[in-house]
Amino acid sequence: MRRPLTLLFAALSLGSLACRRDEANAVVDTAVRSADTGVAAADTGVAAIAGGDTALRDKHTTAAPAREPAPTPDGKALGAFIAASRHEIQHGQVATQKGSSQAVRDLGRSISRDHDDFVQRAQALGERLGIAAAAHAPDTSVAGHPSAMGSLRTKSGVAFDRAFLEHEVDYHRWLIDAVSQTMLPNAAKEELRTFLQQAIPAFEAHMKGAQDLLAKLGQS
Fold first, then answer.
1. Residue 57 CA to chain centroid, in angstroms?
2. Which CATH number fits domain 73-219: 3.40.50.10610, 1.20.1260.10, 3.40.50.150, 1.10.40.30?
3. What is the pTM of this model?
């Protein structure tokens, strides 16, 4: 009877050892899996941080476009003067090409040349004084420039001469008033005010030249 009992005890001992070994292996496996999970989580966290750094960097490097500063009174006056003079350059160029008389073509050439000089001087003055010429908000006279040009281009001969000269009288009258009543009151810098005032006699000469030629047309 002792041998069977001894064998039974030995078998139970071996089974117990096997169970303990399996439990130990399970604990080790669990620890390894936990470690792997921790490493994966750490990797994910690093990637997230890296992605956050990229987003943060992009946020700072992709800045919103700066707004244009509001135009100053000097900028408004200078911008209006340049816009009106550019229109007169175009008016004069049309007369140089389509005028039926030498006198009309010469007046157109003089108007175009003088106003081109005014534009260049105005731009140089703005750069020297640090004045940014504002985009001119169209008023009634300036807004009608495209239709006036279109009308002039459809005419020829004496009809063109009359339409051009009448337009120049009206436009220069408006321009003289605009300089005197709007641009000069807006101008704060003394040098800009002097420049605007000195332009008025030239505009008056253009208007008188157109008036004289209109009077001659009426006599013919």
1. 26
2. 1.20.1260.10
3. 0.66
